[in-house]
Amino acid sequence: MFRAFYQEVKRAAGTDDRFLRESEHADLACTVAFKLAKEKRKKPQEVAEELIEDFEITGDYIGRIEIENGYINFFASQEFFEDTVSSILDEDYRYGGLKLGGEVLVEHTSANPDGPLHVGHIRNSIIGDTLVRVLRKAGMNVKAQYYVNDMGRQSAMAVLGVRRYGLGNGKPDHEVAKAYIKINADAERDNAIDDEVEKLMILYEKGDEGAIRIFREVMEKALEGVRETLEELNVEHDEYIWESEFVRNGYVDRILKMLEERELLERDDVFRVDMGKFGYEKDVILRRENGTTLYITRDLAYHLWKNENYERFINVLGSDHKLIANQLSDLLNALDLKPPEIVFFEFVSLPEGSMSTRKGKFISADELIQKTYQEARKLIEDRDFSEEEKNKVAKAVATGALRFDFVRVSPEKPMTFDWKKALDFERQTASYIQYTHARACSIMRKAVEAGYADLDFRYELMDDVERELLILLSKFSFNVEKVAESLRPNILAEYVLDIAEKFNDFYHRNPVITEDSELRMHRLAVVDAARIALRNGLELLGIEALERM
Predict the structure, then answer these.
(1) Global pTM?
(2) Domains of the chain, with CATH numbers?
(3) Mean pLDDT of 166-174
(4) For residue 513, what pLDDT band results from cuts at 50, 70 and 90?
(5) Considering all CA atoms of the chain, what is the largest pairwise distance in Å, rounded to the nearest integer?
């Protein structure tokens, strides 16, 4: 509804998005008078008063217009609020959706398959998965991909480590990591290991059947464990696409030929691009002396494939990838190919310091998930639930705590995860939102049990706190569109939290199940509308909307 109201205001004011803003003092404010005041050398208030005389109001959702200190403030009509509640109750699970259309590929997580995911990786996963959910809600046809980095030295070290030491009976990604860490430690004392690794890399790139078999076996073992971890976080990928495929299917040869045709490729002992042309100090090497390609070569090939198959493609990357990502984008532009839209994120800081899988110095995502679950389980121990339900609720609360805290902070800002704060039911947390949703469900259950099933929103019964709540609920698709355009999922997290806070204001001020039947039916309609918005918002965040807590 708010999107429709926004468009009405935009038409009436005859302006564009730059001069419209959400405001605490109005449902929507227009600031165009300030720009025109400078040109006309008049006061903004005077210009605003002149402007509204010429406004042509079409549609049904603008109720009244007021001018305050040069701001033109628009307020929604009775019909707007009635349609908002009606739409939410009618659309239910579909509420907040759009029909923007388009084919979109989101590549996220894509961690090296040499061990388990750590806490830095899962910020990537959670940002990426939330974007996938929101873009689908916006009506786009979205595919989520995990790009498996199965080539290069790290993968070859993992393969050699597993061949030498085998795998234990633990979670497979952790077992691969043990072998990887051990082979790296041995390599510091034994130079022959580097020679073996190089031979493996050459054989794998040339397509040797034996090398392909052992690489696939080891990489699949690591990915088996990674998938288990992602499942615990409610993260799903539609496809796992292997880096080596782009060597085998000819895309690497094609990208090298394209660079040569543009006179960008220089050949001597290696294949290189002079990046000085693009403002970089160092050349980019695309093929080594031994004939093996580098990560950026295969990534260019992957993005050639993306260009041929998708209208829009988005990469979620850690900020330490900025240099190579910028080089990739510049080279794609030089080839008249579209570069990816990139969401860079800062890593999660930990008191243990920097993390390195090679040295075995990392906090795995599995450890963090388990610790958060254990703490959530303690918090609900005194609830009157069965053991099975306690486990279910604890898992949902723990997953919610992780997902919400990892996505709520703007991607470009560093973050620290503190499970004590994240699990506080009284703070601005996922558990607070889940508890608010459960409260709304409880109110509706009690109403039904008492025989009060009818809902009937009455504009004339609406008070200020309900008005604020309904304006907020009306902005669901408006915020979905914001995230789809900006690729900032923290906008959605803050929006859903705002709904929870406004609903709790309403709940504490307004008794719902009252003797006054008209007031009761009106307030139950407001409760149910909030319940639907909270549930749909939590689902977009990948968090279970619990009905009892």
Answers:
(1) 0.93
(2) 2-76 (3.30.1360.70), 108-345 (3.40.50.620), 374-540 (1.10.730.10)
(3) 95
(4) very high
(5) 88
